[in-house]
Amino acid sequence: MLKNKSPWKRFLVMNLRNRIAFNYTFATALLIALVFTVTYLIVENVVYRQFDEKIKNEVSEVLSKAHINTNDFQGFESFDDLDNKESIDTEFIQLVSRTGEVVKKSSTLSWCALAFDPSHSGKDYFNNSFSESIVRQAQIPLLNKSGVIEGYLIVAVPLKNAIIVLQDLRNVFLFSFPCIIVTLFVLTIMIAGKSISPIKEVIATAERITQQNLHQRIGLPYHRDELYRLSATINDLLDRLQEAFHREKQFTSDASHELKTPLATVKGTLEVLIRKPREKEHYETKIQFCLMELNRMAKLIDQLLMLARYESSRIKPNIESVALVPHLEEVILKMMPFAIEKEISIKMDHNDPVSVPADTAFLELILVNILSNAIKYSRNASTITIAVERKAKTIVCSIADQGIGIPEENITTVFERFYRVDTSRNSSTGGFGLGLSIVKKLADLQNIKVSLKSEPNIGTTFFLIFPST
């Protein structure tokens, strides 16, 4: 696309510095041109106004010497002397008839005569030519008592010096304008280049960053301006990308391990079975074992798909007012068989019935996962305590166990996928480390805050904080 464009267009499109300089210079050129034009017009107007005032004074003096006024004109004889000795070289005076025929003129005109312009019949001032020069001129109509024009009094002053001054001023403006624009453009390019140099550093650093060196960051400028915000924003983005890559890498590693182990177990069991004939009971035992492993894999895949759906936000919660205590009692009843196996007792502690805004199905899944974890990691014959209470404008549900607890350094990672307290990753507890990840996703969808506190070998307490209805 750029190859088909003119070099000037490619120059403007490809270079941000030059585009900034061009746009700034263009705008400034318009402003300077406007200032020069207005200045010239003001000077010209002032100069002409001074000449017009001079002509006006001369007209008044001539009429005063003739002892007449323009509305009571008796005849040209009244103008005996048209010469003003004090300004004999600066004014030209001439009387013409109504047809433009010269009747009288001052000695300064010598053999020349002022040009009569019949289009200017009033007391206005205009420029006219005279003996190859320019004069400022006024034509004053002379009226008789009947209001009929009998002739004109023409007074003019030469504009030679004023024209030279105006031409010089115009030439200065015309010469200085391109010089100013070119100088401004060069300076703007230099300033713009220096101003956008941090952007070049940002681009260079960003180009060097790949998946292998996501730890690198863009240096922050000294001034806390837009470039500082841009660099800080990009660094925050890189932090999130690095964290996402780390999570995906860990997820891939953990998922492959979780799936590879049961597959290898099933494969090894079946290979042993086909080596030689065995007893029927042996076959049944091994097949049941394989089915159990396959069921675990199916459950793992279901949970992974569930997480994927929650993370893609394709599932929308149906928020309604839910009675929390009856809901907890139903979940306890459902989980009681697992608690009985370990002789664990579950106690409820609540003061009054409360309702919370939540999705019934999602809330049940959250409570089942938390309570399942509490049973799974609690010691035999221990107690799980569930409490519901109001605090300020929130309702807090806590589930406390007396289990193995979580090390302090791992508390921030318990909601990550495949995290398990038993770092050996064995499946003796029957879990995959996905339950709390699902809890966090479901809670976020319903604006429920989830937190916990834990001490190793003492126990863990999960908190669900609901907004009060």
Describe the structure.
The chain has about 475 residues and is an alpha+beta fold. It has three domains: about 70-160, 2-Layer Sandwich (Beta-Lactamase), CATH 3.30.450.20; about 225-310; about 315-465, Heat Shock Protein 90. Helix content is about 50%, strand content about 20%. The protein contains nine helices and twelve strands. The protein has helices at about 5-15, 15-65, 160-195, 195-210, 225-275, 280-310, 325-340, 360-375, 435-445, and strands at about 90-95, 100-105, 125-130, 135-145, 150-160, 320-325, 345-350, 355-360, 385-390, 395-400, 450-455, 460-465. The strands form three sheets. A five-stranded antiparallel sheet has the order 2-1-5-4-3. Strands 7-9-10-12-11 form a five-stranded mixed sheet. A two-stranded antiparallel sheet has the order 6-8. Helix 1 crosses helix 2 (about 15-65). The longest helix has about 50 residues, at about 15-65.
Give a topology summary.
Layout: H1 7-14, H2 16-66, E1 92-97, E2 102-105, E3 125-130, E4 133-143, E5 149-158, H3 160-195, H4 197-208, H5 226-273, H6 280-311, E6 320-323, H7 324-341, E7 345-350, E8 355-358, H8 360-377, E9 383-391, E10 394-400, H9 435-445, E11 449-455, E12 459-467
Parallel strand pairs: 7-9
Antiparallel strand pairs: 1-2, 1-5, 3-4, 4-5, 6-8, 9-10, 10-12, 11-12
